[in-house]
Write a structure and sequence with these properties.
Layout (H helix, E strand, L loop, with lengths): L9 H10 L3 H30 L8 H10 L6 H22 L1
Helix pairs in contact: 2-3
């Protein structure tokens, strides 16, 4: 299971103390909230894709998220960036041929 750590400067810590009583709890809650929002989006995208393509939807949230990645319904942000760069490079090659 991945573990993420964040280091703050003394000033950043002071700034966050204005925002939250327990900074670690606040950071964990923000991170978990983003996970919940993104999880719901992935499940909705997977459900729509499966319904549209007559694919049986996996049982359980974890399985549906894995299914969405396996079917290519969604991909990691890094993979999206790589695909965008590759697409831009291919378009650039096409443009160069036109000249």
């Amino acid at each position: 299971m991945p573990n993420y750590t964040m280091t703050l400067t003394d000033v950043e810590d002071k700034v966050m103390s204005y925002k939250a009583e327990v900074i670690q709890d606040w950071m964990s809650n923000v991170f978990k909230q983003q996970i919940d929002i993104t999880k719901e989006k992935i499940i909705n995208l997977n459900t729509a894709h499966c319904n549209k393509n007559n694919i049986q939807i996996a049982k359980g949230e974890d399985a549906q998220i894995n299914q969405a990645f396996d079917l290519g319904v969604v991909m990691s942000a890094l993979d999206k960036k790589k695909a965008l760069i590759k697409s831009m490079e291919e378009q650039n090659k096409l443009s160069e041929k036109e000249w």
